[in-house]
Write a structure and sequence with these properties.
With 191 residues, this protein is mainly α. It has helices spanning 9-45, 48-60, 64-80, 84-90, 95-99, 128-138, and strands at 111-112, 115-116, 151-153, 170-176, 179-184.
Length: 191
């Protein structure tokens, strides 16, 4: 025998909130799944031009043309280097491998320090200037001021550290806008 048990207003509210929580978890799971699918589509389907335009916009979009060219110069330098870690990663010139190497560019990281990163290439909408700069890089151009630098970072302070990364394989070369650029030391070849 099934009987109807009347629920108090608090119990009804509890049931409602519980159902809402379940729906929110499902929605969150679906959104994460959709985001992963979108990432894989971008990773596989986007051309090198599209990826470079998105990297330029995301990594240095507020730094003007030279700032964006500097960021892409580092990408191209990593693709071209004949020694060390990036030589192995690029496998003879693969831009996609360099861009998607884990832990290298914040703009391809879904989370940073456990927090969702909204500023990714997946959320960028490049304009003509970003495509022009991507074309400039694909044509083999690099920014002279950046030289052979393989790393850059925004220190979020007025001065740059003398070395980067922490293993000492890069030494400060120059600062352009908000970013510090580092060229390889002899230690880099051993990475």
């Amino acid at each position: 025998i099934i009987t109807h048990i009347p629920l108090s207003k608090n119990a009804c509210l509890g049931v409602f909130l519980y159902n809402l929580l379940i729906c929110s978890k499902i929605k969150c799971t679906l959104l994460k799944l959709m985001h992963k699918i979108k990432q894989e589509v971008i990773r596989v389907a986007y051309s090198e031009r599209e990826l470079l335009a998105r990297i330029a916009q995301c990594e240095a979009g507020g730094e003007g043309d030279n700032g964006m060219k500097a960021a892409l110069t580092v990408v191209i330098n990593r693709v071209r280097t004949s020694e060390g870690e990036y030589s192995r990663v690029s496998q003879g010139g693969n831009i996609r491998n360099i861009i998607f190497q884990p832990g290298q560019f914040d703009c391809v990281r879904e989370t940073i320090n456990g927090t969702y990163n909204p500023q990714t290439i997946y959320n960028m909408n490049p304009t003509d200037i970003h495509y022009q700069i991507a074309d400039w890089a694909l044509a083999g151009n690099t920014l002279n001021e950046i030289g052979e630098c393989l790393w850059y970072l925004n220190p979020f302070r007025p001065t740059c550290g003398s070395t980067f990364p922490s293993n000492g394989s890069g030494i400060l070369h120059t600062r352009l806008g908000n970013h510090c650029f580092y060229r390889p030391t002899s230690k880099y070849a051993q990475t």
